[in-house]
Amino acid sequence: MKIILRITRSEGDGVSRDADYALEVDPTASILDALLRVKDEQDGTLSFRRSCGHGVCGSDAMRIAGVERLACKTLVRDVAAAENAVVTVAPLAHLPVQRDLMVDQERFFERYRSVSPFLVARAPAGPAETEQTPKERAAFDDATSCILCASCWSACPVLDQDAAYLGPAALVSAARFVFDSRDAGLPPRRAVLDDPHGAWGCENHFTCTRVCPREIKVTKNINALKRALKP
């Protein structure tokens, strides 16, 4: 089928423009396939990130047809219903654009690092593994699926008003460890989480949950953190 990719192009100077690229593609091809075709056949200056191509690395997150998605997991038929359909492709929001579909993710990872996204062990490591029951594992299993693609960050309307908000991914990463029975839990993270820009900044819009390519219950995890923070 024929489609037109309408890609937001930018040199990272705050000035952007839309450029149209007509393609003949199979409906089962991915948007990443289409972008590679544009780069290989029409415009070698087009810039975007990609790596594994299988929805694991999270590097090719972008806004496709107005929604945060992974280009490698989004098929043409998912966003183009008819011949000559126009499919818009734009960089993630709330992050500075470096070039075209590439964004500077330092702000995103700064918030991620601030929640100590690593195990703070309750006790020194012993000679054997620390055992967990299936119930204890299930308490944080959902949050382990995060691939740090920043789709939730881009989709979060709170960041439109509060640039200091930690963001959904950082809070999900905090939940992954706070609810891990092997971890020291909340005390070492309370200062950053129990704050108007922390867990309490979430307004339950659920946009993060809807766009998560790993189907993590993002808002549910954040609300669990809120309950844990209460005296």
Task: Walk me through this protein's architecture.
- The chain is built from 10 helices and 7 strands.
- The mean pLDDT is 96.
- It starts with a strand and ends with a helix.
- It has helices spanning 31-41, 76-79, 106-114, 134-138, 151-155, 158-161, 168-178, 190-193, 207-211, 218-229; strands spanning 2-10, 16-24, 61-64, 67-70, 85-90, 97-99, 102-103.
- It is α+β, with helices and mostly antiparallel strands.
- The strands form 2 sheets. The chain has a 5-stranded mixed sheet with strand order 2-1-5-3-4. The chain has a two-stranded antiparallel sheet with strand order 6-7.
- It is 30% helix and 16% strand.
- The protein folds into 2 domains: 2-101, Roll (Ubiquitin-like (UB roll)); 106-125 and 134-229, Alpha-helical ferredoxin (Fumarate Reductase Iron-sulfur Protein, Chain B, domain 2, Orthogonal Bundle), CATH 1.10.1060.10.
Strand and helix map with partners:
Blueprint: E1 2-10, E2 16-24, H1 31-41, E3 61-64, E4 67-70, H2 76-79, E5 85-90, E6 97-99, E7 102-103, H3 106-114, H4 134-138, H5 151-155, H6 158-161, H7 168-178, H8 190-193, H9 207-211, H10 218-229
Parallel strand pairs: 1-5
Antiparallel strand pairs: 1-2, 3-4, 3-5, 6-7
Strand order of the largest sheet: 2-1-5-3-4
The CATH architecture assignment of the largest domain turns out to be Orthogonal Bundle
CATH-defined superfamily of the largest domain: Alpha-helical ferredoxin
Q: Biggest sheet, open or closed, and with what strands and sense? A: 5 strands, mixed
**β-sheet strand percentage:** 15-25%
Report, as a whole number of angstroms, the end-to-end distance: 58 Å
What is the assembly state of the chains in this entry? Answer: single chain
Radius of gyration, in Å, reads 20 Å
Give the overall silhouette: elongated
Provide the helix percentage: 25-40%
Flag low-confidence runs.
none
Q: What structural class do helix, strand and pairing data support?
A: alpha+beta
SSE series: EEHEEHEEEHHHHHHHH
CATH class category name of the largest domain: Mainly Alpha
CATH-assigned fold name of the largest domain: Fumarate Reductase Iron-sulfur Protein, Chain B, domain 2
> How many individual helices?
10
Number of domains: 2
Instruction: Please count the beta strands (DSSP E, at least 2 residues each).
Output: 7
Mean pLDDT: 96
